[in-house]
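Q: For a teaching session next week I want to show students how multiple molecules come together into a single three-dimensional assembly. I've collected the sequence lines for a complex. Could you give me the predicted structure tokens for the whole thing so I can convert them for display?
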Amino acid sequence: MEALDYHAEERRKAEFDVEEMKIAWAGSRQAYEISDRVSRLVASDPVFRKDNRTMLSRKELFNDTLKKAAHAWKRVIELRLSEEEAGKLRFFVDQPAFSDLHWGMFIPAIKGSGTEEQKAKWLPMAYKMQIIGCYAQTELGHGSNVQGLETTATFDPHTDEFVLHSPTLTSSKWWPGGLGKVATHAVAYARLITNGQDHGVHGFIVQLRSLDDHLPLPGITVGDIGMKFGSGAYNSMDNGLLRFDHVRIPRDQMLMGVSQVTREGKYMQSDVPRQLVYGTMVYVRQKIVADASSALSRAVCIATRYSAVRRQFGSQNGGPETQVIDYKTQQSRLFPLLASAYAFRFVGEWLKWLYTDVTQRLHANDFSTLPEVHACTAGLKSITTSATADAIEECRKLCGGHGYLSSSGLPELFAVYIPACTYEGDNTVLLLQVGRFLMKTVFQLGSGKKPVGTIAYMGRAEHLLQCHCEVQRAEDWLKPHIIVEAFEARSARMAVACSKNINKFPKQEDGFAELSADLAEAAVAHCQLIVVSKFIEKLQQDIPGKGVKRQLEILCSVYALSLLHKHLGDFVASGCITPEQGALANEQLRLLYSQVRPNAIALVDAFNYTDHYLGSILGRYDGNVYPKLYEEAWKDPLNETVVPDGYHEYIRPILKQHIRVARL
Amino acid sequence: MEALDYHAEERRKAEFDVEEMKIAWAGSRQAYEISDRVSRLVASDPVFRKDNRTMLSRKELFNDTLKKAAHAWKRVIELRLSEEEAGKLRFFVDQPAFSDLHWGMFIPAIKGSGTEEQKAKWLPMAYKMQIIGCYAQTELGHGSNVQGLETTATFDPHTDEFVLHSPTLTSSKWWPGGLGKVATHAVAYARLITNGQDHGVHGFIVQLRSLDDHLPLPGITVGDIGMKFGSGAYNSMDNGLLRFDHVRIPRDQMLMGVSQVTREGKYMQSDVPRQLVYGTMVYVRQKIVADASSALSRAVCIATRYSAVRRQFGSQNGGPETQVIDYKTQQSRLFPLLASAYAFRFVGEWLKWLYTDVTQRLHANDFSTLPEVHACTAGLKSITTSATADAIEECRKLCGGHGYLSSSGLPELFAVYIPACTYEGDNTVLLLQVGRFLMKTVFQLGSGKKPVGTIAYMGRAEHLLQCHCEVQRAEDWLKPHIIVEAFEARSARMAVACSKNINKFPKQEDGFAELSADLAEAAVAHCQLIVVSKFIEKLQQDIPGKGVKRQLEILCSVYALSLLHKHLGDFVASGCITPEQGALANEQLRLLYSQVRPNAIALVDAFNYTDHYLGSILGRYDGNVYPKLYEEAWKDPLNETVVPDGYHEYIRPILKQHIRVARL
Ligand SMILES: Cc1cc2nc3c(=O)[nH]c(=O)nc-3n(C[C@H](O)[C@H](O)[C@H](O)COP(=O)(O)OP(=O)(O)OC[C@H]3O[C@@H](n4cnc5c(N)ncnc54)[C@H](O)[C@@H]3O)c2cc1C
Ligand SMILES: Cc1cc2nc3c(=O)[nH]c(=O)nc-3n(C[C@H](O)[C@H](O)[C@H](O)COP(=O)(O)OP(=O)(O)OC[C@H]3O[C@@H](n4cnc5c(N)ncnc54)[C@H](O)[C@@H]3O)c2cc1C
Ligand SMILES: [Ca+2]
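A: Of course. Below is the structure for the complete assembly, covering every listed component.
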């Protein structure tokens, strides 16, 4: 019996080798094989079912999450999975859990800020999950402004301990994942106070709950902060609150990798440079960018497949209607998102390299690239997560009414994804940091200090401020050097314009404050250039497989030209391109959409997602959408009875005109 | 005892009479008084509590909705509320329910398409809710393309009946609100077939459930389509599915206001003009635009109040930190949304007038304005709902992490609002209709046919295609005629450019298809012009109250200039304004933000929303955010026990290294 495949015809149309594209997407054959194997493992395991998630109550959902996390850990041990494989397993289980914070924040925090002794003491326990940790930084009153945290850790020289305390309501820790119900330990951030002096915010390892009975230790108040966006989604996570009432911990539980408190209560910098902590930050942000490409590709996969199934209008002589993917509006909304998924994937890959590079430099005491790396990772985190959040919702809209059903998978995907715009740095706050870095770079241009890395192009500012775009025909826009120069010129001109406007203010700080919206826009321009450039650099590598590179070239052009169209004002108002060249770009874009069209289904197949991971009836691999939607509907609890509960109390009295006497 | 008011200082800053602004917002003193009274009535009634909504299971939520709907109806009868008051009551109960469709779609459909006899028969029952109706148009396979519906209504001359039938799975009705569990009747749309001839889609009144025991009548399969976006939100509604298996209804249950089937099965147009049905459409769309301003103003109210409470960074000498509303980025994201709320309110008000106007014309057999009215209402529905959906999510982001909590009210508001982008016409499909209308207008320009109403400016296309914007200094942008001309020129130039490009295609239809994305953009430009113009027209009226008009002028400028900034590419590339003029607009915008700032809280107070209606801890009138967030957290079911359910099965075995032997 042949398997049902409504997309077979679409798959036949593909002009490239899908299997090779899967490898290009995954990053390497090995990465592909691990992903493929682990995702199937998860998909075939009934414990990891998630199709009923939106119907569970908070308690049921949380219980289900604990079960999955335990089962996942069991499988990791039974199958002796490597760290990479274990990470993939958690990824494909696709349900936020305390363990994400344990592995993703608690352990890296100790690794990044602990001394060698601290690492030797705590990490082995953490690796075995004999303790479960969370990352407790944010408070009710302070998130973005970490330096404003109010929790105190006061050194008591009599007992050689720190006393952790929450002096105000707003100093309550608030948001840390895993804290609410599970974590036994936290890396908690607090103001270090020794001898009455405030040394600012530092990290401390604090035990929260007894390892015997899981009860909070004396002086600790801890709980869950309540429901969040959506049904299912991030409600599987026990984001928590925490108050300390004079909780004592030994002195050696302050993370002393970078600064220390001596037995006498003296505060000292260690000989390890402070900058080392930035390694962790780059690592975390690189992961967030990779997650953006995953979430985005997932939404795009659903919307693309459904757009090929969905037919609406345009039937001729009783024939089938037009697939909505054939409408140019649908293409102009969808294909740039498809291209962005690939663009973010490749810039994420490059960030992995950057992480290795910066780590090596840090260990060699070379801090020269840090400001640039800091700005670049902050900016990429910001623009990729913002774009992904918007894109998921656009994909939902692209599915018409049916996208609004939970069974489309898109509502949960949106709800679970969007906090990425806020955590690990609010996206606006991050853009402003990039903006400041850009201004600093511009202000230093005359000084002989040469900009490096992703900002190197500013060294050519003089040229970029007066260059003219060479485009004469639409196809000129396919040339990489033309694209790069246009994006460089746009970014340079916006940055320089900002700097000039700032200089008009008597106090520079006032200029920064007043023009911050412009700075944020300049930052976006700079970061989009980075993504475009890295995509183009990727294409300069050898990429095997029939037609694979060609498809990626098309997507790269779609990515760049759709950005150009969206931000046309930047390009034209700064004189980087003429209105006519803008119109030619738009024309080229339309031609590119026609080239993407026959390959669209194969391009999303290349993500290699199982139906389990996608979690969407609209995105099913086989395209068998309607019968499955119909089947799914009947599972709703409301359909357990034909006449709904409440009929006699609430509906019948209305119909029978008895409402005035009804007891409600 | 004085009431707590953390916003007291902000309220003192206001430079206008808030009470008078409340009336300007409501539209009239009478409308204000009704809203005010009814909203308090709802807020003070414990049955209408909604703060626990996101924690209810689907069944509990639905039961809660039935209860509220019954109680609302009871109050309507007890208090002898007018139709307007009853509508307001449902509005402030703020929980989608079957009754919305009964009053908002079922009754208007009969009113709009029924004969006088049909109205006399059905409406009295409907007004008393002796029957409860829904509007069953969309099917699993067809939404946007109404003409493609598959359900059939075949006339049987032997029995003088129609036989309603669902011939395929995709012909199942799918989405109608109230259908799933409650409605006793539907206006169902089906292809009318007489004598083997298909006369296209018509409406039929069909009884679905027994009035005795609420069981579906023979031949009818009906149920709920399952969970939708979010928790709470639209899940209170029983959007339903429906299949007909040869269901017979008397001939007089076809809505025969416009066309009829005789006893012999002859299909005839009635002498009432077809166009009359458009009245209903204008009515429904006007309501959707009004709802957009309500949803948007609600989100803006929450984000504005919280932005004045939230402080982050910028503490000097230990003083308080900066209110985030003082950051220019926050202002540049928030204030345009505040301005949009007012803009949509006023264009909604104008649409009410338009509805009256078009109704009068229709009855006087004057159909001349119909195409323009059709395009204008389609376009306004599209741009106001799209903008509102985006804005709610932006408001959520403006609240940082805490906006992600259900208790912020923003997640539910988003989830419940967004389908407005899809129902009553997918927003892209609607824009394309506007685009076609624009092209038709442009193509006819030479013909002597004068464009009327909102498209009248196209009559001055010749001038608009070559005019130059007069702005020389930033404050020139405050002049209404300059704004209007810039927006008219932009729209005219985009439309004319589209039409020229379309004419390059050998077949015009190919041009329409290929350039549809450009058409949609031109449509947006046209519709934004309408909103800007109507805001400006409003300001030409007498608006009483100290400072009220002045504030509205500021908001009008913010609305127009923020759009200009966002769509700068349109304006500059088409040569409507120069890049320098664009920069001046941006400069003026910044100055305007500073003028809005001291009035921001009062401007959202003017919406006159109760805390009940807002449903947001962040948006509380008194600004007492943190203690209430803390209190609310403890109500989560997860906090019922200190040690979570599942600890012994799932957490302890991990910590104790017993996971391999644990029974999961
Ligand atoms: C799902 C989720 C999980 C989380 N997990 C954790 C965790 O495990 N551990 C943990 O410690 N924390 C966690 N957090 C907290 C998160 O890190 C913070 O929410 C985040 O840092 C943003 O801070 P905030 O909420 O204070 O936003 P705010 O800073 O209050 O932002 C509010 C608004 O003010 C603006 N703003 C703030 N400062 C400025 C400025 N200087 N200039 C201009 N505008 C400004 C912002 O742009 C935003 O629009 C989590 C949050 C969420 C939503
Ligand atoms: C919450 C909710 C409540 C509803 N309530 C009711 C109700 O009470 N009664 C009722 O009858 N219906 C109801 N509906 C159904 C609603 O009217 C339809 O969903 C709506 O008309 C959109 O149609 P669709 O779902 O078929 O979208 P589709 O037409 O399938 O849209 C899918 C995609 O195709 C695109 N597309 C479609 N046609 C074209 C074209 N010609 N050109 C370019 N692009 C195109 C769209 O832009 C969209 O991106 C409801 C829907 C929702 C979500
Ligand atoms: Ca729920």
